[in-house]
Design a protein that fits this description.
Distance between the termini of chain B: 72 Å
Radius of gyration of chain A: 25 Å
Strand order of the largest sheet of chain A: 5-4-3-6-7-8
Helix content of chain B: 55-70%
Structural class of chain A: alpha/beta
Shape of chain B: flat
Distance between the termini of chain A: 69 Å
Order of helices and strands of chain B: HHHH
Number of strands of chain A: 8
Oligomer: heterodimer
Order of helices and strands of chain A: HHHHEEHHHHHHHHEHHEHEHEHEEH
Largest interface: A-B, 116 and 84 residues
């Protein structure tokens, strides 16, 4: 048994270690050490909790059993999960944090004595408010992440689900959450607590269903942020510094990532959250699409172009992840490099289904991270490059974002792929991307379309080099 | 006059938001996916609340409604802790620099 003051100091230390864990991610060299700090911080927090309670009776054994069960499941998932499935995994993990927050809030509500919060029916007002906020945000995180997970996994259609009066309904529910919290705090009624939880679960579902598949990077980041605020809410209830610090860190981290993703699409946060983007105007654009001539080629042509180039820029997108083409791509690049061709990779902020998704996939395929560049770093190099190899990306290369103010993606930062001497575009068909708009790049004089599966095409090109 | 301890916690919270703001902006964009998985892992420090709830039952009855929610939350959070840290480690191990083979 250690004193409350001493344990508070240890919680503070683990909070600081968590800050260092994030700090480590400023460069790949320090990142592994950062992760270690995070693990140490977690071990300190858990050990101190045991020591502070000082109760090593039969309950302790059960705690260890449940911890072990969860740990084994977690470790198994961590080793098995393919890198292409990271967005789903992260969404799934968010839902667990949300649900854990809800469970802790329920436990504290049912047995406030254990947490020094008063007695059932007579919980301290401040604690009850904090608890309600933590539980409500946790519930929203949980159900929202479940929808995000189902959409990313393809179990649920990625197209937005909208209906009349949707925003009004959501607004009413959000207001009712505030009213319920107020009533709960004044009456302490358990029934109101359960209603508050159910309504929060419901609004989580409703908030995410109108958001389309291409906006998932924003949604995941946003839910990341929510899970942090939920943790912070519970941290206030438990008067635990480690939890408050972590909640604030995670909350601001998710908020910043959402901001970066929104900026990458030149859309406001509210525009994304209100949903309905993508899929809706698809039919109209398909109708007035005139037949324009397209140059298409095969692996042989592509290999010829690249062999005669001196520098090549690769533009990967979500399609590369779907086709699992990252390893084949790296083999192609290895062959190019043997022929003394300079190769670099250009990554758009919103390529893939979560922030940094493409970087992880390329890292998995043993692409050195100093060959991979962000949009601002590499965009000027397209004009000097001989070949741009676009694999699985579409909207992020569309020059229409710079030229046509009528376009839904106008103003979005795009990779200046069209400035290259020639463009190779690997794609299965001419169909428009997620935003539902035609890509002018397909019809450019210097573009050669390679209609095939990304992985197969890359392998064929390698053979022909 | 004494200051309510809540104010101290609020101060920690607000200052941590600022720390988070500056720390996260310094994270390189290529590590944004590991950033998400590691924030996932550390936010599962909520497990401390779950442990308190799980150990709150008395010696005769380890399981009551409150402690059962605690135990379930322990499992959920530990999936995240182990899964989050390990998958982050797995990802970070893949980030390699260019081999110096140019002579």
């Amino acid at each position: 048994m250690i004193s409350a003051n001493l344990s508070a100091v240890f919680y503070l230390i683990s909070g600081v270690l968590f800050i260092l864990a994030l700090r480590g991610l400023s460069s790949p060299e320090t990142s592994r050490q950062g992760n270690l700090f995070g693990i140490i911080g977690m071990i300190i927090a858990i050990s101190v909790t045991f020591l502070a309670i000082g109760n090593f009776s039969s309950g302790f054994v059960y705690v260890l059993i449940f911890l072990l069960i969860g740990g084994l499941i977690g470790a198994f998932i961590a080793y098995k999960i393919p890198m292409t499935a990271m967005p789903e995994l992260v969404a799934g993990f968010h839902s667990l944090v949300g649900l854990a927050a809800v469970f802790v809030a329920i436990a504290a509500f049912l047995n406030p004595g254990a947490f020094n919060l008063g007695s059932p029916g007579n919980i301290k007002l401040g604690s009850l408010i904090e608890m309600s906020i933590g539980a409500a945000v946790g519930a929203i995180t949980f159900s929202g992440s479940i929808i995000a997970f189902l959409k990313l996994q393809g179990i649920m259609s990625g197209s937005p689900i909208t209906f009349k009066g949707q925003h009004l309904l959501n607004a009413i529910i959000l207001i009712s959450i505030v009213v319920l919290t107020y009533l709960l705090c004044s009456t302490q009624s358990p029934n109101l607590f359960w209603i508050l939880l159910s309504v929060s679960f419901l609004i989580g579902f409703l908030l995410i269903i109108p958001i389309g598949g291409a906006d998932m990077p924003v949604v995941i980041s946003m839910l990341n942020s929510y899970s942090g605020w939920a943790a912070a809410g519970i941290g206030f209830t438990l008067e635990n510094t480690a939890l408050i610090i972590t909640g604030a860190l995670v909350g601001s981290s998710g908020a910043i990532l959402s901001y970066i993703m929104c900026k990458g699409m030149n859309r406001s946060f509210f525009n994304v959250i209100l949903g309905g983007f993508g899929g809706t105007d698809q039919s109209s654009t398909l109708q007035n699409k005139e037949q324009r001539p397209v140059k298409s080629g095969n692996a042989d042509d592509a290999a010829f172009l690249m062999k005669n180039a001196s520098s090549v820029i690769i533009v990967p997108g979500y399609g590369m992840a779907v086709a699992q083409a990252q390893h084949a791509l790296r083999e192609m690049v290895d062959t190019l490099k043997k022929n003394d061709i300079k190769v670099s990779y250009a990554i758009h902020p919103v390529a893939g289904r979560m922030p940094g998704h493409m970087n992880v996939l390329l890292a998995e395929a043993n692409v050195p991270y100093d060959e991979v560049f962000e949009l601002e770093e590499i965009n000027n190099d397209f004009a000097n490059a001989d070949v741009a190899f676009v694999i699985g990306a579409n909207d992020v290369t569309n020059p229409v974002a710079k030229t046509d103010p009528q376009s839904p993606i106008y103003g979005m930062p795009v990779l200046d792929v069209e400035k290259c001497k020639s463009v190779l575009f690997v794609k299965r068909s001419l169909s428009p991307g997620y935003a539902g708009i035609d890509n002018d790049l397909f019809y450019k004089e210097n573009t050669l379309m390679l209609f095939a599966d990304a992985k197969k095409m890359t392998e064929d090109i390698t053979k022909n080099l | 006059m004494e200051i309510d301890p809540f104010i101290f916690r609020l101060s920690i919270f607000i200052l941590s938001i600022f720390v988070g703001y500056y720390v996260v902006w310094s994270v390189t964009p290529s590590l944004h996916t590991p950033l998400m998985s590691v924030t996932n892992a550390i936010s599962s420090v909520i497990i401390v609340g779950a442990i308190i709830a799980g150990l709150a039952g008395d010696s005769e009855s380890v399981f009551n409604t409150s402690s059962i929610f605690g135990f379930l939350a322990i499992s959920l959070a530990s999936i995240n802790i182990f899964g989050g840290f390990l998958v982050t480690q797995r990802m970070l191990a893949m980030y390699k620099k260019k081999k110096k083979d140019k002579s």
